[in-house]
Amino acid sequence: MTQQQLIELLNELVKQPHESEWVEFKLNFHSAEEIGERISALSNGACIQNQPFAYLVFGVEDTTHLIKGSTFKGKSHKKGSEELEHWLATRLNPRIDFSIYEFNYDADRQLTIFVIPAAKIQPVEFLHYAYIRVGSITRKLNGFPEKQAKIWKKETIPFEKEIAKDNLTASDIPKFLSIETYFDLIKLPYPSTQQGAIDKFVEEGLVVKSKGYAITKLGALLFAKQLKDFESVERKSVRVIVYKGKNKVITEREQIGGRGYAIGFEGLMDWINSQLPANEEIGKALRTETRMYPEIAIRELVANALIHQDLNEKGFPMVEIFTDRIEISNPGTPLVTPERFIDAYLSRNEKLADLMRRMGFCEEKGSGLDKVIYYNELYQLPPINVIVAEKRTRVTVYSYKTLNDLDKKEKIRACYQHACLKYVSNEKMTNQSLRDRFKIEDQNAAIASRMIKDALEDGVIKKDDPESKSRKYPSYLPVWA
């Protein structure tokens, strides 16, 4: 929000006859814990009162609503050595995407406003307790079961269908969205009139029409000319960070996407690929460079991070490049276990996923990670690793290592992923196929046998025919097959 927009918002809030379940005024800061409880209470109250957002304002007297200003600076305040915003976000469940704004109302009065989205699907908890406002008092929600039930029973609108910007005319739509990009990517002829193009956007759910027009969050997320024009999705911009070395101590470069995913995807991939290390090959006549990582695999993983992120979770998709690996992560825990990524498909954001596929940014349902693993093996790279922690999903692709440099867990994971790839390709893993994967010489077949034995003992693969006593040419399947 701009300073003028914040001033206008404040002027509207102080017109409220009194504090409510979704508006609270304070003069100054008391404690971080109190703010956490208020965020929980206000978010839950906004849900019950059918308000899209709740507001916690510092610098306004609660009884008179006089704007007096505050010394509290919410954006820069720290809890111990940690930024207050991060401290609060990590103690809320679910991690709602609240925003903190510091601004000057005039030369003498500085204020802080917390803009808090309404609870969806479930009550918002702070430190394992959900709160609610009863009049001007904050209480624990479990003491008010009828209010609690209203939140659980609330029908929620999917993030993609929520409104990002409304009160627009037809001529406003092309100012904010790149309409031409949609028709170019879908490979449809551009309509003869602008109205025809907007009608197509309405059909796709990118724009909705009632009295006027409104742009949905799906429309903004994909086709925004500038994501900063849409406050509710701006924080979903993709971050790419290049580090010097194998840790995060020194950042060399950082790029933050400023446009919608569909408009900026090719530029994003070009920039990522330009930052990845390359191996130099000297041929008979020409010196050529080969990327250390398969570009097709990285493209698929980045597209998946955009599609499968939990848009209701605080955070953004991120690509982090180290000297020995590339990590691609997104907010939210997956709907299927990481072990079944290769064969199972379930997306939170069906419309986003559908459009991204139709525009050619990623594969059809259920045929993405098999391509990643295929090219990972083709490039003789270690197995990818999927970690789910702190409500983020992170996929790591590693640079080349010799087989001898892989530890036991990596060898087991490589064996499992190879078995999965063979299975979804309607084939079966064998000692020979595993040797081919790692370029193991025939005389060293015992190395592959040992890897298979470890994977069997770890319970990630199984024999194709457990009744067979033959030890010649056995084949193997992933344990879930």
Write up what this structure looks like.
- The chain has 481 residues and is of the alpha+beta class.
- It has 16 helices and 24 strands.
- A 6-stranded mixed β-sheet has the order 15-14-18-19-21-20, covered by helices on one side. It has a 4-stranded mixed β-sheet with strand order 1-2-7-6. A 4-stranded antiparallel β-sheet has the order 5-8-9-10.
- A hairpin with a 4-residue loop joins β16 and β17.
- α11 (295-308) packs antiparallel against α13, α13 packs across α14 and α15 packs across α16.
- The two termini are 51 Å apart.
Give a nutshell description of this structure.
By secondary structure, this protein is α+β, with helices and mostly antiparallel strands. It has 16 helices and 24 strands. It has helices spanning 3-13, 32-48, 84-89, 145-153, 173-176, 179-186, 194-204, 217-223, 231-234, 261-275, 295-308, 350-358, 369-378, 408-424, 431-438, 445-458, and strands at 23-26, 53-58, 78-79, 82-83, 92-93, 99-104, 110-117, 125-126, 129-134, 137-140, 163-168, 207-209, 213-216, 239-243, 251-256, 278-282, 287-291, 318-321, 325-331, 385-389, 392-398, 429-430, 461-463, 475-478.
